Amino acid sequence: MPRTPRRIALVAHDNMKAELIAWAEFNREALAAHELYATGTTGTLLEFEVGLKVHRFLSGPLGGDQQIGARIAEGLIDVLVFFWDPLEPQPHDPDVKALLRIAAVWNIAVASTRTTADMLISSPLLAGDYQAVRPDH
Question: Could you say which of 65, 95, 129, 136 is catalytic?
Answer without folding.
Answer: 65
